[in-house]
Specification:
three-stranded antiparallel sheet, alpha+beta, single chain, 3 helices
Length: about 80
């Protein structure tokens, strides 16, 4: 992260790619499959959507893992 970016507070939202970078892909996918993590909004654009997540939800996944839990797919 650049020194300039460090001057700003953590944003309330992150893109899907930022969430994947923060959690790592497998944890992100497992968290979505287990319904621990859901998008807060989707911006439709020219040929491709941008998906946003609330940073507090992404951070909550990390905190739950640190507390000894791991996201498991919910039984249907």
């Amino acid at each position: 992260m650049s020194a300039r970016k460090q001057l700003f507070p953590v944003p309330a939202h992150v893109t899907q790619s930022e969430a994947v970078e923060y959690l790592r892909r497998q944890v992100f996918e497992d968290a979505v499959d287990a319904a621990w993590l859901k998008p807060c909004v989707r911006k439709t654009g020219k040929g491709r959507d941008t998906v946003f997540f609330a940073f507090r939800d992404v951070q909550d996944v990390s905190l739950r893992i640190a507390a000894g839990e791991y996201p498991r797919k919910e039984a249907a």
